[in-house]
């Protein structure tokens, strides 16, 4: 079973805020939701012993491929709506940054998007 280790909160985790859609906008809650999405994907591969933390890397640690990231993008949109655009997020990264992308970087991006949507 995949374990979720919620590391010390980052600056994005200062105060829990909810978006109009009810999605949490604090890092620990977003980490838990994204970990759940990843757990579902990893269970399909029989990888149930991988710990997902803010420092977990998608490529090296989880061994996800581009098609898996496309599936994750779909899960993110289904949960958070169009306010969280994973494709736009990775488009701003160079190849090495994409290869080294961590769950924490995605969590912080999601938190920023949810807070920005709330402020609109």
Describe the structure.
The protein is mainly α. It has one domain: Non-ribosomal Peptide Synthetase Peptidyl Carrier Protein, Chain A (Orthogonal Bundle). Helices cover 51% and strands 0% of the residues. Helix 1 (27-44) packs across helix 2 (66-80) and helix 1 crosses helix 5 (103-119). The longest helix is centred in the N-terminal third of the chain and has 18 residues, at 27-44. The model is unreliable at 1-20 (pLDDT under 50).
Summary, kept brief:
The chain has 5 helices and no strands.
What is the N-to-C succession of helices and strands?
A: HHHHH
Given as residue ranges, the uncertain stretches (5+ residues, pLDDT < 50) are: 1-20
Stated plainly, the CATH topology is called Non-ribosomal Peptide Synthetase Peptidyl Carrier Protein, Chain A
Number of helices: 5
CATH structural architecture:
Orthogonal Bundle
- Structural class by helix and strand composition: mainly alpha
Q: Portion of residues in helices?
A: 40-55%
Question: How many separate domains?
Answer: 1
Distance from first to last alpha carbon: 39 Å
Backbone CA Rg = 14 Å
Shape label: globular
Strand-residue fraction? Answer: under 5%
């Amino acid at each position: 079973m995949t374990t979720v280790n919620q590391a010390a909160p980052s600056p994005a985790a200062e105060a829990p805020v909810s978006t109009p859609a009810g999605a949490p906008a604090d890092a620990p809650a977003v980490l838990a939701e994204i970990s759940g999405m990843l757990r579902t994907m990893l269970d399909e591969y029989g990888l149930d012993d991988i710990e997902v933390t803010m420092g977990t890397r998608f490529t090296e640690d989880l061994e996800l491929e581009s098609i898996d990231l496309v599936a994750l993008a779909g899960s993110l949109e289904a949960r958070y709506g169009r306010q969280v655009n994973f494709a736009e997020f990775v488009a701003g990264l160079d190849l090495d940054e994409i290869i080294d992308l961590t769950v924490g970087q995605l969590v912080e991006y999601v938190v920023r998007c949810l807070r920005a949507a709330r402020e609109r």
